[in-house]
Amino acid sequence: MMIENRGALYQSRRGVGGASCQDWKPPRQRGPRSCTRQGSGAPAPGSGATIFALSSGQGRCGIAVIRTSGPSSGHALRSLTAPRDLPPARSACLRLLSHPRSGEPLDHALVLWFPGPQSFTGEDCAEFHVHGGPAVVSGVLQALGSVPGLRPAEAGEFTRRAFAHGKLSLTEVEGLADLIHAETEAQRRQALRQLDGELGHLCHGWAKTLTKALAHVEAYIDFGEDDNLEEGVLEQADSQVRELELALSAHLRDARRGQRLRSGAHVVVAGPPNAGKSSLVNLLSRKPVSIVSPEPGTTRDVLETPVDLAGFPALLSDTAGLREGVGPVEQEGVRRARERLEQADLILAVLDASDLASPSSCNFLDTVVVRPGAGSPRENSQRLLLVLNKSDLLPRGGPDPRPDLPPHLLLSCLTGEGLNGLLEALRKELAEVCGDPSTGPPLLTRVRHQHHLQGCLDALGHYKQTKDLALAAEALRLARGHLGRITGGGGTEEVLDIIFRDFCVGK
Ligand SMILES: Nc1nc2c(ncn2[C@@H]2O[C@H](COP(=O)(O)OP(=O)(O)OP(=O)(O)O)[C@@H](O)[C@H]2O)c(=O)[nH]1
Ligand SMILES: [Mg+2]
Q1: Which of 305, 413, 422 gets mutated to test ligand 1 (max ligand atoms within 8 A of its CB)?
Q2: Which CATH number fits domain 198-224+232-260+446-487: 3.40.50.980, 2.40.110.10, 3.40.50.300, 1.20.120.430?
Q3: How far, in Å, is the centroid of ligand 2 from the Cα of 48?
Q4: Which of 114, 202, 344, 349 is at a distance of 20 to 30 A from 470, taking alpha carbons?
Q5: In this structure, which ligand is nearest to the CA of 414?
């Protein structure tokens, strides 16, 4: 905030010097309002009914878990089980399940009773751990459907109820969705950290700082002329805002990383023809994605495959060998390869170690890899790993084929020698590209987080620019509102619908 005109502004608010703040109302609440989890406030759509669903995966399996949530859960449990009394809370008990109408036995199952609010959803919940045969599962689901007040759950409805009852914040809900969809180790770690509330805690910490700054500004508005007001309250608010701006900007710069961790980094394999690019793609993806042949120019299109690369999710692209003076089809392949290179987060540059002096190798080194001393590092945040393939063709134990090259790895796709080293290098590179979920601050994994962080920063920008104390306080409130919305405060129904759509029925 520009504080040089403070005195005049303070006067203007008191109606002495101007009308700019005539409509301003005294702050209703000056004490710290922490942004603790309170639930969404709104009841989950359709809450009141008791819902049930199969919560474990579909298909034949050893054990299947069916659960209910809602006020009739206890009644449902009693209706299906013999003996009919409720088991002790949160203890597994073996019960005979039978159909409440026909009395037909359905299964011997472990049942659990979770009286609300100490349950996943915060409501009364019951779980039936039945044998996983399709007929058992459908029999128990039908039996539950025959209990009055029960209906099948919709996708994500259990989690939506947990959110509505303040059991999970929105970032934790997202963490849970990510955990269910996690396919790689890094994704699992990241999702678990988010589910554990790390991102939420970070936002709460930021919101607390804003609450303090706001309290200082409001105190000045109310008591600016009083002698007993601590010296420099506005300066304190300004320095709190400055620190926060730095922290938020740093996180925003890293936002792409978290998103890559959720959706996969773009790893593009490129190089001159016949270097072994397709062989490497097949080796890394452990399946025959691309045709491999001794004929240069075999790959002409971009071939994509999602892979787990050293624990990180990646979209691996095989591309046409880069060379000039070829027919129109291959030329188009080369154009597509170059286009894909532009979009890469990480380039796996492959050269034939036994053919480094060829014109296509030299050209690739000059144009894509950039030799040491030849120019600037890569412009954007794009990273590159240089791989010299076909090391088996080099004399055993011989000298490095080109010591003047940038740092590189020797590999043989044929024998697999050097693969572990490459995977380790990939792990390090991808930890840079996607962020390392084992260490460091929690990542912003969604555009939604990025949007609100940017909104918060914009509001702080207004705070700094305005000379009007009332507007400055309003900007701080706006900034805090953005942080609150990351964890779910005041979330609109549409946002909630989008987030809960990621869930399956039974979660
Ligand atoms: N000796 C040896 N041969 C290899 C190795 N890797 C690949 N090759 C052979 O090199 C030839 C070209 O391999 P590809 O994987 O098709 O090469 P590419 O770079 O995809 O080729 P284009 O698609 O034509 O650009 C094939 O005959 C492979 O068997 C290796 O590590 N050692
Ligand atoms: Mg190929």
Answers
A1: 413
A2: 1.20.120.430
A3: 59
A4: 202
A5: 1
